[in-house]
Specification:
By secondary structure, the chain is mainly beta. It has 1 helix and 12 strands; from the N terminus they run H-E-E-E-E-E-E-E-E-E-E-E-E. The protein is 5% helix and 56% strand. The longest helix is centred in the first third of the chain and has 12 residues, at 2-13.
């Protein structure tokens, strides 16, 4: 059954949306976490003196859990600060995120999942934006002591405040060296090629690359109780094209509580 689901959803993803806004994060097809409550925040801050990039930032507050052994769902609030001086931080999106594990680990050459997200834009006036649907395949494979993960997304905007027509293609790649559970290094790549069939030249596309530190620590090891664990990610992304921010600080902090 999973094989049929995989074939159908992958075919659909090649015809339609990119991850919703705000955070830089590579999603693993293994992130199901059945029987755990997740409290999570992601964020990123741009470091660039150009006025169209300066001081831009985004943050999320998320609550999620595994609904079945193969379906993880989250509710998210997204906050953004537009580039430029003295911009406010605004609640801009209410989002539902869903990750589906389509194959069992090691069942095929690579492990497959599927991601679907819908974001309802909440800001109005000059800060108004489009609603978005995003989906696409999640692919992971262990090679030696590393885990390679690929996210391929298509995004479609809806509503009167669209900034682009058609399907936007974006991707995220992560190569993680599984050195030590509390601290493992990784390299990540994030790109956005623009609208499919009307992509600008590479120098005008978004492309960021950089190192990330990530790990998992159990609460009892931190002296904070016997149940649950904390996951973290902290990275610096370098802009690889003139259209990209010069640098982006990105972070993720997640508390997992079993129930």
């Amino acid at each position: 059954m999973r094989g049929w689901i995989l074939a159908g959803l992958t075919a659909t993803s090649l015809a339609a949306p990119k991850p919703a806004a705000a955070d830089y994060h590579v999603t693993s097809p293994y992130e199901i976490d059945l029987g755990e409550l997740e409290i999570e925040t992601n964020g990123d801050a741009v470091f660039d003196q150009r006025q169209d990039q300066k001081a831009a930032a985004s943050y999320t507050a998320e609550l999620g859990t595994g609904l079945t052994p193969w379906w993880h769902s989250e509710l998210e609030l997204g906050f953004n600060r537009d580039p430029g001086g003295n911009q406010p931080v605004l609640l801009t999106q209410a989002v539902t995120e869903n990750t589906f594990e389509l194959t069992s680990p090691g069942e095929y050459f690579a492990d497959w999942g599927f991601y679907f997200e819908y974001g309802q834009y909440t800001a109005t006036g000059r800060h108004a934006g489009a609603n978005e649907a995003t989906f696409g395949p999640l692919i992971a494979k262990d090679i030696g002591h590393t885990t390679e993960t690929v996210n391929l997304y298509l995004t479609r905007q809806f509503g009167p405040d669209q900034s682009a027509q058609g399907l936007d293609f974006s991707y995220a790649l992560q190569s993680r060296w599984n050195l030590w559970t509390p601290l493992s290094p990784a390299v990540e790549v994030y790109g956005d090629t623009g609208v499919v069939g009307n992509s600008p030249r590479v120098s005008r596309q978004q492309l960021l690359v950089g190192p990330v530190a990530m790990g998992l620590m159990r609460l009892n090891a931190l002296g904070l109780g016997d149940a649950g664990q904390v996951k973290y990610e902290l990275g610096w992304l370098f802009g690889a094209t003139p259209a990209s921010p010069r640098g982006v600080l990105r972070w993720r902090l997640e508390l997992e509580i079993p129930f």
